[in-house]
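5,10-methylenetetrahydrofolate reductase, putative, Rhodobacter ferrooxidans. Tokens?
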Amino acid sequence: MALFNFRSSTPTASPSAEVEGFLQGYSIEVMPRTAEKVEDFRALLPKGTRVYVAHIDGTPIADMVATAKRLHREGFPVMPHFPARIIKDRATLADWVARYQGEADVKQALLLGGGVNTPAGEFDASMQLVETGLFDGFERLHFAGHPEGNRDIDADGSDRMVMQALRWKQAFADRTDAQVAIATQFCFEAAPVIAWADRLAAEGIRLPIHIGIAGPAKLQTLIKFAISCGVGASLRVLQRRAMDVSKLLSPYEPDEMITALTAHKARHPGFGIESVHFFPLGGIKTNAAWAIEHGGAATAPANS
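Tokens:
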């Protein structure tokens, strides 16, 4: 993920109080190779920002732990990914957990199935990771969410298996002391996200949602990631933009998405989206600058 540094060519208006509130306590993710290009995260991110460490298949665990250790040393709470389908066995998982805890004081984790077709070992789903007991004592556990569906789980295009899994995760949240939430894949359109969040609420899923937002990036970069990550319905937003010559060469920025979700939250205070999680697809420096310009400079809440 290259570190582009695109900035808006037009001045940014002062963000509204609602947008500032919506962005307060946002999280962001990095990979070891992108983190290496950042001299000091304290110069980019608000104090207390949660930083996810994304685990891409093939990345050595030593690199992952070193990145987490560096972020912890710079004062950021770290949430590493644990993709079930690339973890060989319980012993491997236990080793990862022990190294993260011992070297980086990790107390938070994102548990997900992982985007590979054939599991490397005995794990196929995030729920199986929980059932090992190795995350007992963690302060916060997040599970992956997919507002536009996940054909890795429901190949028929329904959400039957996904909803079943979410009910399990809600039951787990009800009996654990850990703070549990859903961190979603990035989307480009608010309407499908709002419909999905409302559907969860109607099904009795009360887990807070940390909505995935793609940070500013070249349009071509976003389309590439959207296709590879299975972002379907809201891809049409990018396709419409690609057809507009006046916008084709300018970077995408998530203003419309953030504004629409903020307005909906203001009208419906009980709306399930609790926080924003940024995917810095155009570079973490660019994303961090955009967040600050749009009101995300506040220190993260103490209970985040």
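Residues 1-12 have pLDDT under 50 and may be disordered.
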